[in-house]
Amino acid sequence: MSFDVAFGVDVGGTKILLLAINRDGEILFEGRRSTPQITTAPGHATAEQIYGLVDEALGSLQLSLDNVVIGVGLPGIMSLDGELVFAPNLLNDSGTRLADVLREIAPSMHVLCENDADCAAVAEHALGVARGVDNFVMVTLGTGIGGGVFVHGELLRGRSGFAGEIGHMVVDAKGPPCPCGSSGCWERYASGKGLARLGSLAAHEGRLPELVKARGGADNVRGEDVSEAATAGSSEALAVIREVGWWLALGVSNLANILDCGLVVIGGGLSDLSAMLIPPALEFLPTMVLGAAARPRVEMTASKFGERAGALGAGLLAFERLS
Prior knowledge:
The protein is α/β, with parallel strands linked by helices. The protein folds into two domains: 132 residues, ATPase, nucleotide binding domain (Nucleotidyltransferase, domain 5); 172 residues, ATPase, nucleotide binding domain (Nucleotidyltransferase, domain 5, 2-Layer Sandwich). It has ten helices and twelve strands. The longest helix has 25 residues. It is globular. The mean pLDDT is 95.
C-alpha cells in the first residue's frame, strides 16, 4: 500500500513532538505534548500522549489512521525488532514494545519504533546538512545525548541494533552519577542536563554573580537561565557555555579517533545554542584529536532541522519501511 502522509514522532525526556509530513519532507502539521513523568503502566502513559497527538493531527488534516504511517523515535537502546530495551531518560518505558502498546489503543495503526538519534541522522542524510555525506555522526543534545552514525552511506546498527549510544561514553570516571547507572558519562557534561549541572556548579562557586542575583540565589539558577543570559551577551554565562563547548569537543574527539568521521552534525533541543557551542568546540578539537595536524579537519555544523530532525526522520523511515 502506498501512503502520502507520514506522522513522525520524537519522544524526548521532557517533550513529545509530532510532525505530519509528505514524501518531500514538507511539514503539514506540528504538535507537542509533555512526556509523562510517572512510574506506572510502562509504555501506556507515553502511548496515550502519542495517540493524543496522532488524533489531533488526523483531525487537523481530515485523515483517518488508514491513510497514514507512523514512525516513533525513542531515546534509548532499541533492538532490531523494535523493543526499547533500556532508556536512561525514559526509564518507565524501558523493556516495552511501544508499537504494540499503540496498537492496543488503535489496532489499525501502521507504526514502527526506532532510536530517536538514528531518526535524526536519517533526516539530515536525506534532506539536511549531511546530504551526500557518506561518513558522519549525528549528535543530539537534548535531555541527554543521542547519536546516529552513518558509515559508507549506511546507518550503523550494530549486532543488536544498539550502536550509537555515544552519550554514555565515560569522559570522567570520577564524574557525577548518570541515570544509566554509570558515572561521568558524556551527557552529564554536554547535554541540556549537563548545562544545568555546570551552570549550577558555576553559580555555587561564585562564577555567575549577576545571574545569581537576578534569580534570587544560586539554588535557583537553571540551565535555561544560563542559555538566556548567554544569548543576551552575558560574559559570565558565555564562559559556562564555553565550558560546555570544551566537553562537547572532548566527546567529539573520541568519536573522530574511533570512527574517522569527517562531519559531526549537532542537533537536538540544545542545538539552538549551536552558534555559541560550536566555535569553542572547534577551537579545542585540534588539541584533542589524534594527529590533528596530519589528518583532514573534522567538520562540525548545526543540524538543518534542529529539534525537529528526529520527528522528521521518524516520518521518513515510516515511509521507507511501512509503505
